[in-house]
Amino acid sequence: xxxxxxxxxxxxxxxxxxRVEGQRAASEAAMARVWQHPYLNIFKHFKVEEWKRxxxxxxxxxxxxxxxxxxxxxxxxxxxxGNYLQLPKTSTQSLGLTGRYLYILFKPTPTKYFVVHLDVxxxxxxxxxxxxxxxxxxxxxxATWLQFPFICGAAxxxxxxxxxxxxxxxxxxxxxxxxxxxxxxxxLRYILSLYLNRSYSHLKSVKLxxxxxxxxxxxxxxxxxxxxxxxEAQQSKLVVQGVSPMPREMAFPVxxxxxxxxxxxxxxxxSDGSKMPFDSIQKGxxxxxxxxxxxDNPVGQLPKEVSLSKPxxxxxxxxxQITSPREMPRQSxxxxxxxxxxxxxxxxxxxxxxxxxxxxxxxxxxxxxxxCFPKSRVGDGSIHVYAHKNGDVTVHAVSVDSDENMCAExxxxxxxxxxxxxxxxxxxxxxxxxxxxxxxxxxxxxxxxLWAANGSVVVYPCHALIIAVALDTGRQRFFAGHTDKVAxxxxxxxxxxxxxxxxxxxxVMRLWGFLTGRCLCMFKTGxxxxxxxxxxxxxxxxxxxxxxxxxxxxVVVWNTIQVNHGGEVxxxxxxxxxxxxxxxxxxxFDDTRMVSCGRDNxxxxxxRSGALRSCPVNLGECRSMEFTDLAFExxxxxxxEPEDRTLFVCSRSGHVLEIDYKNVSVRNVRRLLPSEVQHSxxxxxxxxxxxPGIALSSICLSSSFCATASEDGYLRLWPLDFSExxxxxxxxxxxxxxxxxxxxxxxxxxxASGNVGCLDIQSKDYCTIMRSHRDSVLAFSVEGxxxxxxxxxxxxxxxxxxxxxxxxxxEFTASDETPCAVSxxxxxxxxxxxxxxxxxxxxxxxxxxxxxxxxxxxxxITGLTFSPDxxxxxxxxxxxxxxxYSCAIQKSHIVRVLANVVSQDADHAPDALSVSGDGRLLAxxxxxxxxxxxxxxxxxxxxxxxxxxxxxxxxTALDTAVRLCFAPFPxxxxxxxxxxxxxxxxxxxxxxxxxAVSQVHKQSCxxxxxxxxxxxxxxxxxxxxxxxxxGMRFDINSQxxxxxSQPIQQVGFTPDQKQVISVGDAIFLWDFxxxxxxxxxxxxxxxxxxxxxxxxxxxxxxxxxLTPVANDVPRQVVPLPTIMSPPCLELSSIQPTGQHDSFSExxxxxxxxxxxSSREAVNGDKAHSVLPVKGAVPCEEPxxxxxxxxxxxxxxxxxxGNECRKETIGSEPQNNIRPDCYRHFTPRFKTSVPPKAFSPxxxxxxxxxxxxxxxxxxxxxGNMVWNPDTGFFAYSxxxxxxxxxxxxxxxxxxxxxxEEISTLAVSHDAQVLASASGQGSGDLRCQIRIWDIQNGxxxxxxxxxxxxxQAMAYSRDDRLLATVGDYVDRGIALWNAxxxxxxxxxxxxxxxxxxxxxxxxxxxxxxxGRGAVTFWLTEQQGAxxxxxxxxxxxxxxxxxxxxxxxxxxxxxxxYTGTSxxxxxxxxxxxxxCFMTWEAVDGEIGVLQCHRNRLISGSNSKRIQLWSxxxxxxxxxxxxxxxxxxxxxxxEMTLDGTIVSATFDDCxxxxxxxxxxxxxxxxxxxxxxxxxxxxxHKNKVSxxxxxxGESHCATCGEDGxxxxxxxxxxxxxxxxxxxxxxxxCLAWSPVPISVSGAESQHIVAGYSDGTIRVFSISxxxxxxxxxxxxxxxTGLGYSADGEIILSGGKDGLMAVSSPRTGMTxxxxxxxxxSPINIIHCTRKQHIELGVEGDDLWLxxxxxxxxxxxxxxxxxxxxxLIDWLSFPAPTGxxxxxxxxxxxxxxxxxxxxxxxxxxxxxxKEILFYSLQQKQVVEKVPLPYFATSLSLSPAxxxxxxxxxxxxxxxMDHAKKTEEDYRGHDDAVCLCRFTPSGxxxxxxxxxxxxxxxxxxx
Length: 1892
What we know:
Layout: H1 2-35, E1 39-41, H2 42-45, E2 55-57, E3 59-65, E4 70-76, E5 84-87, E6 101-108, E7 115-122, E8 127-133, E9 140-141, E10 145-149, H3 159-166, E11 182-187, H4 188-196, E12 200-209, E13 212-220, E14 223-225, H5 230-235, E15 243-245, H6 260-263, E16 265-269, H7 288-296, H8 310-322, E17 355-356, H9 365-368, E18 372-373, E19 415-417, E20 433-439, E21 450-452, E22 457-462, E23 465-470, E24 476-479, E25 486-491, E26 497-502, E27 508-513, E28 518-524, E29 529-535, E30 541-547, E31 553-559, E32 570-577, E33 583-586, E34 593-598, E35 601-608, E36 611-616, E37 627-632, E38 646-651, E39 655-660, E40 665-671, E41 676-677, E42 683-684, E43 696-701, E44 705-710, E45 714-719, E46 727-730, E47 735-740, E48 746-751, E49 756-760, E50 766-770, E51 777-783, E52 788-793, E53 797-802, E54 808-813, E55 819-824, E56 830-835, E57 840-844, E58 849-854, E59 861-866, E60 872-877, E61 882-886, E62 893-898, E63 913-915, E64 921-925, E65 931-936, E66 942-947, E67 961-966, E68 973-978, E69 983-987, E70 993-998, E71 1007-1010, ...
Parallel strand pairs: 8-10, 11-16, 14-15, 19-70
Antiparallel strand pairs: 1-13, 2-5, 3-4, 4-13, 5-12, 6-11, 6-13, 7-8, 7-12, 9-10, 17-18, 20-77, 21-22, 22-23, 23-24, 25-26, 26-27, 27-28, 29-30, 30-31, 31-32, 33-34, 34-35, 35-36, 37-38, 38-39, 39-40, 41-42, 43-44, 44-45, 45-46, 47-48, 48-49, 49-50, 51-52, 52-53, 53-54, 55-56, 56-57, 57-58, ...
């Protein structure tokens, strides 16, 4: 007991010491700011004149300045680097000055250059150098260095000033002769945030270099105005507004009657920058009062006129968009009612100069005239956007810089800057790209690959990146920060500290915290190149070796002890030596001792008394060897001293030396020789004393064996006496390095060819971790169906990769040729490759053989591409030759060759050619670099030439074309990048310039690519990738992404648009997040209308409507959820004091709702977060935004009146990136829109009745409920809620949701069901419907959440309903479950995945999210509810995870599942996690517990049953509990990821839902799983019926063909074809006799061009045919079933026999246009002039219909009619186009019914006898599906607007029906006409036709 008490007291003491240290650190930081306020005189504080805390070098003197009448410092000298004044004295020290503004009082020396360097530290311990000089010609930036040109101003009225005003060139340069003293004010926080997206911490050092005069330096957090006195400031109330007069110490002398600005210059940066260059430091006419007025009072300002200078226009919208306020003004909410205006006066007369307001890529309203602002009289040269106090500025994407853009109103094409805007929107999501994987290794060398995390992670460099890959999952982590290739790596003993150094003259070294991925420190090594690094085991000492600038070898030792505590690296010792060093290591037993080896030497080093000394080892006869690596013997013996170790050194001659480290002598020498072939043909390894040895490059030792790497390509394992080879692995190139894992079970090695491999010693398996190109990657191409990537490189290899796993599949090597262009065939599994010799080869991946070789070119291939349909191939070379090939068959042949038509410039490679999306046009640069030529892609006939050099009339230089790219069809745009960094948007038909976007990149654009939907554009240049919004609807239309260390050669989207690939130094695979972003097209339309207002002025009220900020009036436009969302609630760290309860409540803040922020405690516990949330805080919300309750019945209306005051608002969330977990719901992307017009049938007179729905929405989350007691069973399919009787199978359908249902919740008494879906038409919020289970009536509709509802839960007493929004909404709401009034709501800072109420404690609930559990407590006080929240993070041992699921258990236990497959057990009384266990290798999305059994479901497709009986007892043990007490009783593997599950109280049986659309009945007692509900996972392509109408068949894009019983709607049989999509289907009209037995058959067409015939009775595939080379899109049986008609995507139609499998004939009439429909019928007694029994038609996508009469027995097939329907052209053309639908009219076989895209929305009836359209039936929309009833004159039409229309042709009536979640893509009447089947994506709806 005593010992325990002492231990407890010692822990308490340690805790108190930590808290005291934290408080001391916080107080020191606070004091640091206090003593520096209001300003700090730097020269005075650091006593510069004494030179003790500062240093000077070169010509630095003091003298008396006559102008300032005081002593100043003069720094002179020709070389700035040798003449300077520096503070502090050494680079290892820091000034520690925290002031935001730095004031420099100086004067440049006339006609001289000067340089100033400022080292600034960021909050993440990053040191950034800010330099400015009149020597710099342009702005340059890296991750750690900003260089700004300084423009020296001259005296007012001087010749220089007038010259500078008249000319915009040559402003940067020597200081003028009459340069004046100036006060330069630098906003350090603003500079770091704007240019580098970093937070400013303090000023570290200042270095003033010649030639200049300097009086003093000051820092302050105040804004000083040098021209304002104290009396003036008080009278004008500037002090209140934040502007202070200049202190006396900082003031320049001003004689009486003079003006300060007439004598001196006040330069403020960032400034207006109205003079060029724009990113420069220069004189402005600043009025700080106006600045402060805007900063401190952003709300409620009077309207004033605004004139925005170029850089302000560039950055105003950026800063307003990215500034996230934490504290808002108290007087009113942040409501922007008008754009603030600033008055100024200038002497010159005002001119009406207009600025282009917004740029647009495409034609539209803006193309006809842009609105411009009039320039007003302004005296303020700089405008600052208000940033809230304590608000951080974050910039994810850096805007490009462009020239100043002032233009008058013109009607022609306009050159538009990419950043001019006054709005507050940007491209979302931000960031839109996320680096997922990099294929690459090395860059500088292939030597470094290290073990980390106890051998579970491998770390290696890839050019400028450092990659850590987990061996079990293959997931990569990236350490980014280096600006050049990484030369060496080093780990400390426990792999927590990583050192890396880059090549180049700076040789910058970085130290990383490996677990966090943060850069802890960065410093210069002082060497020109570093070749080797070594960390001590403790991580306190780092040693490195390399070459200095003179080529001498240098060894440096650094002290790194303080790095983990925020300190800096200190150099302990440094030594120069003449010996060669190839390897250097610190002894693990002594941090002060090192060993090195190299050519002819092995040396021992030691640090003593600040000096580094070495002694050589006497090598004797081995002194003339080249030693390559060394290693100490492993293990430890208590009988020996620590330094009594054996050192092993290997050499290139094969010798291994054993050196006695203690005695510094060679103990033994062995020579390893290659194997000899024995007579038994066995290979054995032996050691000899003579003969050629093995060239060893690396050696590593464990306690039991030794591993060596050698240049003969072998990795060998030896015993410690080297008597034999234990194991070896052969490689195709020299092995460079070898590392043994700490547990001695695996060996890591690297090769010279760029491979990283791992040898498993126990299993003797070898796996390749990374393969890579050895040189720059020149081009790539992606194949969509197989998800493969082919890349070509300067290393003369062609490699094929799997995109998903990024594993190399194939490698082709051309020894004497370099492949330089490559392209995949769009439909065949082949690719073409062009070489520098001019040869073009096509290679088949299916056979891995060369198919064809073309030698039409003599120069290097610069362009190679296929047409979209794959029928043609194009190539061009650097000699100007263009070739056209025919690829209709697999082997291509030449069609036409043209000489000297393409520009003879290799800079256009590898994208010199571009083909339009419809395959009709070919574009390229040529015949000169100024010309862009368009040709007919089928014949190479020239159509158009565009001279890009004359398009810019204002340019004095000729512009040349660099790259070009067609926009996707049907946009007829051609994009051309030019040498002046512009992108020209041309009309591909006329060549007219539509738009020109300037300064896309700072250097030439090297590649550009479109997304398939034409919404996004990729450009590459400056070693960065940019993603653009092609519609240019935002203020910030691009995002910038870095990572490449070399120029990017090519960039592009994958075919599914989910990923982006960029190649250059390596292959980068990015996740493209734009496919998940929702868009609001209403905003775009409204913006276009507002920008086209007449005249030169813009209606500010209309512009205000475009900005997504709060307003006093209802919005006219639905706001985009991801742009404007309610503020989020930040959970501040508040430590509970003096309470036994984990929850605490503080005094209510009356203005919390108005300010939108929560109070933050000063002293908080980081491990816990407690925040009281009052539900009754009054707040005002704009109308139309507040939560509302819609009452379905009139008698219930008017009950919700005060919901606004129930909502608590916090601060705005920073980004809306979807969490990386499947548990979080994301609605399926849809292109359809709800209908604008709807004609419902009269009640009781419906023509259709929804009978059944086939399918379950596997995209939902928790969207299935089952109550075992009552038998109630419900699930969702699309927007329909299905209630099914499990005994009879009958269904009830609850309609009403406008969008896809995301989740369900049922009350515990099974009387009420809640269902949630997205926003309806016209609604601003999501719908939550409350259903009465007994009668199926919707009681109420709740509107609160903005985007999607993620989860819902009822309390155990059914008094409360909790609803949680998705990652965009982030709201949690509590509803009264009796009245459904909103009781309380709040906004969280992070997404929540699931919520649950405690079954034991009333008012307790919990939710899970990113790395933490949030416990909530509700307390009701009268009508109000207060919320208390306690956020508890997961233990550090679990790591950064998402908590994805949770469930309560009996006995105060909560279980949570993680995204990494762990289950955490929490004690809800103490709110702590006391046990975790690894449940599965994947993410756990479903948990359910009852008594002693726990169910878990994950994305590994497994459902598991756990016995947790011992957990309750283990709860007492706390953290000592062991997971071995949890037993896995049973598990089942289902067909997909588990998304929903419900089990009975005994946990014996339940129902489980998966993502593939299946609901399973699971019985643990019988260990069985039975399908209850089964549907298609992807889009349903076709429905067909048996002749007897007993069955129906469906096919889908998931590759399945399913046969259903029409009586029970049960699945009878399923045929599955893997990796293919089934696109069409037909049922044989008559049974076919096979072997004397009749059998029903169905035929299906697939995406690979095959046709498969299936037998229903025999349940097998009987025949497979391959009549098409592309996807089969249409199928039909002849009337007798003896012929199969099929149509392909290329328009070819094949006639095949199902008996022989032969293709009888091919019809080419519809070539090049996909076949949509093939319809066959028996020819009636109709006189058509042609003999035959079969009448059939085919309709293609180009609105053509062909009608045929056939007599297959006589081999006759004649075309009797050809219909072609016109269609409009222009911007109104929908994309994609509606299909062409045609069918024979059942009640008049001589009539063809057609619907499709045309001049009108209508159905046409065409008479085959009259040869004309005889009737037109108007439609509200273009039809997407069509079916005619065989029994009555009924027509069913489906629309993309999600409605189904039933038309009675005889009665001329029409009825519309809802129930579809997406476009109605199929309508099919059964043969009897009694049923109608419709499909919407993967939903199948069966309707009964009433009274027919």
